[in-house]
Specification:
Residues 328-523 form the Peptidase M28 domain. Pfam families: Peptidase_M28 (PF04389). Keywords: Carboxypeptidase, Hydrolase, Protease, Signal. It comes from Sunxiuqinia elliptica. The structure is a single chain. This protein is an alpha/beta fold. The protein has 2 domains: 18-82 and 326-538, 3-Layer(aba) Sandwich (Aminopeptidase), CATH 3.40.630; 115-317, Glucose Oxidase, domain 1. Helix content is 31%, strand content 26%. The chain has 14 helices and 24 strands. The protein has helices at residues 2-29, 33-43, 56-71, 87-91, 193-200, 207-216, 231-235, 278-285, 292-300, 362-382, 403-411, 450-461, 482-487, 515-534, and strands at residues 75-76, 80-83, 97-100, 103-113, 118-123, 126-130, 136-140, 145-153, 159-160, 165-166, 177-181, 221-225, 261-263, 273-276, 307-317, 319-333, 337-347, 353-354, 357-358, 388-395, 418-424, 439-445, 467-473, 492-496. A hairpin with a 2-residue loop joins strand 5 and strand 6 (126-130). The longest helix has 28 residues, at 2-29. Bound molecules: zinc ion (ZN).
Length: 541
């Protein structure tokens, strides 16, 4: 009896839902494990060779995804192309034909530090040379550059009001090379005042932020020593003999694909950032200069230790560059009101193949890509024209600097009409093996409260097995392709099932996907997007 009542109740609920919103339910029905698995297994297969931006595997993945959009009968929203007939076709009367492609092509400049890098210290009558990959490594270089300048030690290189801290007070870094420590005051002294403040305020300051501070103040290069890290351990030429590597069964270390950086031609050149060993730090600071120990001890008591360092440093950094062709894949469903646009996106590039290993990137970000394609398919199959226009975007070049989404934002004519962006980046795994299998984070623009409320309603009404940790952020510019949209004050939300031990490893395989969770996240995202695309007033802040 109880079962019968449940069935009757469930059917009544379902019927009323159908009556209310037949299209929404029809679309939802098309989202199932088979559809998701069929796409993801191919996308994360070895044939795609890790989908690294600008490589053949990346192009293959792109063609596959464009063909899915075509199969799902979505309208292309990429570049306008003109097909010009050849001489003979012209004789037959064929004319120029204008076509819109699914591909938005753009150029990116790949920069990689070359083998020859030189740094030397000139002090009094002495010149000390340092060796590349023994004493220092080039963390960032955007072009070949020679710098000769005096040195300033700036402690942690931080200027932060919350902490009441300024490493730059009392020293002039303009035209100089700054030497700094990685991390924050209080590191290495957990009971100190500084450590307590950092913990209380949950203070995080990235190297990138520190770099910006230093360059804004006129520094010409940055040297950083990280006391938490054994740099020389990382530089060793023969570290990987398989017994030492948890993630990679190889006798050689994967070449350092993090060394390769991509930038858009429109980006400004940036100055060199160099990581150095402890020995090099001590050599540079000299016998009379500040020491690491006294800097750490002073910092624990909230005192800075910045000071000029005797001598000059000559830096000669070199980079190899080449120009690559990248492609975003863009499709569109035209809404009743084409002036209101919503974008659903995920990056399809990943880290490629190195030393015979393939970074399949099943979770990062095959999972997000199939979320986008599956939602697009569901919208088409619902048979309903939404109120808003929806653009489905698969970004290239995310792993090397969010290039695809940035290029789109810089060039899209209708950017002012975009009122919501839904991002996916890694939605197919559990944070750790023993974490409950239904946990997911939703990061969203704090002011757009309906993003959370609507998601909560959908989870309840459609009995989705998801335990969502809603994380409201005033301006969620971090993490992924949401960055550029959030910077433009467009409300965003994105799902993320967390980092795991296979993150950015060759072991991010499709067998490890939690299919049930991925399916539920896609369903929830579809239901949310349906609601917002048909009731855009929900998004008004
Ligand atoms: Zn990713």
């Amino acid at each position: 009896m109880k079962y019968l009542l449940t069935v009757i109740f469930a059917s009544t609920f379902y019927l009323s839902l159908l009556a209310q919103n037949e299209g929404k339910a029809k679309g939802l029905e098309t989202i199932n494990r088979d559809v998701i698995q069929a796409q993801l297994e191919f996308l994360a297969s070895d044939w795609m060779e890790g989908r690294e931006a600008g490589t053949a595997g990346n192009y293959l993945a792109g063609d596959y995804l464009a063909s899915l959009f075509k199969l799902y009968t979505l309208k292309p929203n990429g570049d306008e192309q003109t097909l010009t007939p050849n001489r003979y076709q012209k004789l037959l009367g064929l004319k120029d034909e204008k076509l819109t492609s699914y591909f938005q092509e753009f150029s990116a400049i790949e920069v990689q530090p070359s083998e020859a890098q030189a740094i030397s210290l000139v002090r009094k009558n002495e010149t000390v040379g340092f060796q590349y990959k023994t004493d220092f490594d080039v963390s960032f270089v955007s072009q070949s550059r020679t710098v000769k300048a005096p040195l300033v030690f700036v402690g942690y290189g931080i200027e932060n009001k919350e902490l009441g801290w300024n490493d730059f007070s009392g020293v002039d870094v303009k035209g100089k090379i700054v030497v700094r420590l990685a991390g924050l005051p209080g590191d290495g002294a957990p009971d100190s005042k500084a450590a307590r403040i950092v913990a209380d305020k949950e203070l995080k300051i990235s190297s990138r932020e520190k770099n910006t501070t230093a360059f804004d103040k006129g520094a010409v290069a940055i040297l950083e020593y990280n006391p938490q890290k054994d740099e020389q351990h990382d530089w060793r030429a023969n570290p990987a003999f398989r017994y030492n590597e948890a993630m990679l069964e190889s006798d050689t270390k994967p070449d350092s694909f993090y060394d390769k950086k991509l930038r858009l031609p429109s980006d400004k050149h940036t100055l060199p950032v160099i990581s150095i060993s402890k020995q090099m730090l001590e050599e540079i600071l000299g016998e009379k200069g500040p020491t690491l120990e006294e800097t750490v001890a002073k910092a624990a008591k909230l005192k800075t230790n910045s000071q000029a360092v005797e001598g000059e440093l000559e830096i000669d950094v070199n980079a190899q560059t080449k120009v690559l062709g990248l492609r975003n894949i863009l499709a569109r469903i035209e809404g009743e009101n084409p002036n209101k646009i919503m974008v659903v996106g995920a990056h399809y590039d990943h880290l490629g193949k190195h030393n015979g290993h393939i970074w399949n990137g099943a979770d990062d970000n095959g999972s997000g890509v199939v979320a986008v394609t599956t939602i697009a398919k569901a919208f088409v199959e619902s048979g309903v024209k939404p109120q808003c226009t929806i653009i489905f975007a698969l970004w290239d070049g995310e792993e090397r600097g969010l290039l695809g989404s940035r290029h789109f934002i810089e060039t899209f004519d209708e950017m002012d009409q975009v009122m919501l962006y839904l991002n996916f980046d890694m939605v197919g795994r559990n944070g750790s093996p023993d974490a409950p299998g239904n946990k997911v984070a939703m990061i969203y623009t704090e002011a757009a409260t309906s993003l959370k409320e609507t998601s909560k309603e959908h989870i309840e009404n459609f009995e989705l097995d998801l335990d969502v940790n809603f994380s409201a952020v005033e301006k969620p510019v971090g993490g992924s392709d949401n960055s550029g949209f959030a910077k433009r004050d467009i409300p965003i939300f994105w799902f993320h099932t967390g980092g795991h031990t296979d993150y950015h490893q060759a072991s991010d395989h499709v067998e490890l996907i939690n299919w049930q969770k991925l399916e539920d996240i896609i369903k929830l995202s579809y239901l949310d997007m349906w609601e917002f695309a048909n009731n855009p007033e929900l998004i008004k802040e």
